[in-house]
Amino acid sequence: MQPDGSASSDAIVSLDFFCLGFAGPRRLGPEDAEAGPWAKQLSDALEVAVLGLRSRLAASRPLCVVGSLAQGADLAIAEALLAHGAVLRAWLPEPLDRFANESDFPHADDRLRL
After folding, report:
1. What is the DSSP letter of 21?
2. Which residues lie below 8 Å from residue 87, measured CB to CB, with a gap of 6+?
3. Pair 62, 17: CB distance under 8 Å
4. The pTM is what?
């Protein structure tokens, strides 16, 4: 808040919480590849975005993220936010043991990430 009581255009007014929804493509590269050359760029960009968001919230304010957990962008976004103390709420279309199947998540590492 400004001294006159108005909100600064580049600041988030004091909030009890901040909730962010996200979605991304399930597959970001060829199905037979675990990661493409974009993986490091995506990780770096997400780190910058999360640090920017966190810098605008008081440390005591919770950050809640809501999204799905498909492999690809969804997992990358969730992991970046969780690494900075966010709370994740994910709704899956079926129980996790059926959702994280070998057909949809052919790489064992992706099933473990879930």
Report:
1. E
2. 62, 63, 64, 65
3. yes
4. 0.64
